[in-house]
Structures are given as C-alpha cells and as structure tokens.
Amino acid sequence: MSAMAWRPDDALLAVYHERQVYMRCGLHAVNNLLQRKAFETDDFAAIAQDLNAGNSFTWWNPHQTLLGIGNYSVDVLTVALAKHGYTLSFFDRRKSMDALDLDVIDGVLVNVMTRSWMGMWQSRHWFALAKVEGTFYNLDSKLPRPTRFESLVPVRDFLQAVLASSQDNTVLVVTPQTNA
C-alpha cells in the first residue's frame, strides 16, 4: 500500500494570513480581513494618535499600549476599515446567530478575553473571520495557518460558542459602507 503525500489545500494557498507579532493582533485582524498588507504598525500608531488629539494626557493614549507595541482599540480598527470602505457594527449577543446574514457581509472581527503569563495576566485578542471567494476562514493570527469553514453553519456555531464562553467577548460585523 503506497502512502499518499500530504498536500495543502490549494484554496488555503491563496488566503492571506498574518501571524501574531507582539500585541498587534488588531493590525493583523484588519490586514487578514482585507486580504493584504493594507496597514503597517506606523499607520495604526498614526490613527491612534489622531484619535487621541486633544487629550491633555499626551503621555497616555487609550487607543494603543504605552510602549506602542499594539493592543489597539476598536476605534483604531473602525477608522482603518473605514479608510477601505467598510463599517463595523456590534452584533447583539441577545440575538440568535441565525440573525447574522453571512451572505451579505464580508467578515467579522472578534474580540476575546485571553489569559497569559501562567493565567495571571488578562488581555484582549482580536481576530478575523473573513469571506474569501465565498468561503469563510478563521484568520486568527495565533493560528499557524488559516482554517476553512466548510459551510455557514460551522461559522455560526463558532461565533455562538465565542459569545457563550464569556460575556466579555464581542463580535463585530464588517459590511461595505453604503452611501445613505
């Protein structure tokens, strides 16, 4: 009996996926959602600085970490995606995930509470589920490679599980801006 060589899924080869660096998961989530390196660290730092304009505490910016290594606020991600024609809206966790029309959205950004440093440090982590050529992928920057969802049912189940696991977790729906 001959062994079959493992061959990566051809569809995965075409999916853009940035891996985690420092606390820049928000940057990676946006780039993964847009399927290209649309933003660099300096771009997100500039957005955070613009959002902080007028703050009398110039040494502290609530939109990123003090050391500038990431941990970007939802406001930074919102502005970044708006520059590429997208809006973010919070998914109402009281609703069934069936209320989320996955056919008309381009993806979701997920923000989860995480523990690190032997469970002593709480932090937040951003990641994207993006629709690439009609198929949803989990593009979490902590994953070694994208994970493809076989249909829309597992996407909904995954998001429902994320919300059920903690009241602190949020799902933001990414849709094209409309000229209303």
TrEMBL record:
<keyword id="KW-0645">Protease</keyword>
<dbReference type="Pfam" id="PF02099">
    <property type="entry name" value="Josephin"/>
</dbReference>
<dbReference type="GO" id="GO:0004843">
    <property type="term" value="F:cysteine-type deubiquitinase activity"/>
</dbReference>
<keyword id="KW-0378">Hydrolase</keyword>
<dbReference type="InterPro" id="IPR040053">
    <property type="entry name" value="JOSD1/2"/>
</dbReference>
<dbReference type="GO" id="GO:0006508">
    <property type="term" value="P:proteolysis"/>
</dbReference>
<keyword id="KW-0833">Ubl conjugation pathway</keyword>
<feature type="active site">
    <location>
        <position position="125"/>
    </location>
</feature>
<protein>
    <recommendedName>
        <fullName>ubiquitinyl hydrolase 1</fullName>
        <ecNumber>3.4.19.12</ecNumber>
    </recommendedName>
</protein>
<feature type="active site">
    <location>
        <position position="25"/>
    </location>
</feature>
<feature type="active site">
    <location>
        <position position="140"/>
    </location>
</feature>
<feature type="domain" description="Josephin">
    <location>
        <begin position="12"/>
        <end position="180"/>
    </location>
</feature>
<dbReference type="InterPro" id="IPR006155">
    <property type="entry name" value="Josephin"/>
</dbReference>
<dbReference type="GO" id="GO:0016579">
    <property type="term" value="P:protein deubiquitination"/>
</dbReference>
